[in-house]
Design goal:
Elements: H1 16-42, H2 46-51, H3 64-72, H4 75-106, H5 112-121, H6 127-140, H7 147-172, H8 176-183, H9 188-199, H10 201-217, H11 220-225, H12 234-244, H13 249-279
Amino acid sequence: MTAFALPRAPRRIALGPAGLWLGVLILAVIWIVPFVFIVFTSLKSQAAVLGTPAFSPPVEFVWQNYLQALRRGNLLNSAFNSAIIAAIKVPAGLFVSALAAFALARLKVPYARAMLALLTLGTMVPIQVAIAPLFRIVLGLGLLDTHLGVILPYIAFGIPYQVFILYGFFRAIPSEMDEAARIDGTSNLQLFWHIILPLAKPALAALFILDFVATWNEFAIALVILQGQDSWTIPLALQGFNTQFTSQYGPLNAAIILSILPVLFVYILFQKYFVEGTFAGAVKG
């Protein structure tokens, strides 16, 4: 009899730690290269920008570009407006979303799944579709060109995504904790504030970072609602600066660097919770 050899299974290539680090290094370089270009350009004079290679470091550091960006770009006032909006919107939006997610995930609410699905549909509504009716509503309420006029829409558009993430995180917390707390006479509000919220710190921190970045960089709603230059946020100030000084590359890139510093600070402050909180929100059950 002729023996037939079974086909060998293809060998799997194990990347190992070295391969993973190589992949991370390549991705880091891809992300860092544009940032290095912006930093170098922000420290060059106009003649150096036009007369030297793009990625060459500056021979002489022109810090005056940053002063011009602050003075002529009105960045301090715009940063103040963005900070006020983010400081109110982000905590308020997270608190409302956490309350809704707690009710849907931990309490016996009729049709909780249906309400969660309805809320999730809100993440599929493009902002551009809602701009026209949103403008009419804000105008009718007398909130045009005010901080509150953008804070309320920001909260409304942020709630669906936040509720979806927090719902999954709250569902992952063992239900035995609720039963033990209620035996001790804990109310629903006490359960939410003293037990569920402290356990949800990683998810809340991750959502805080994402929401802060989204609020700081939001452009479409702010462009329609905030029509006066004194009420502009950072993205509107950058657009105005780019329109007026489009050929002055040093101050323009300096303005970009200054605009991302608050976001970088918030990320560094909460980054240890970011990865854990992002993956902890996988929907359960």
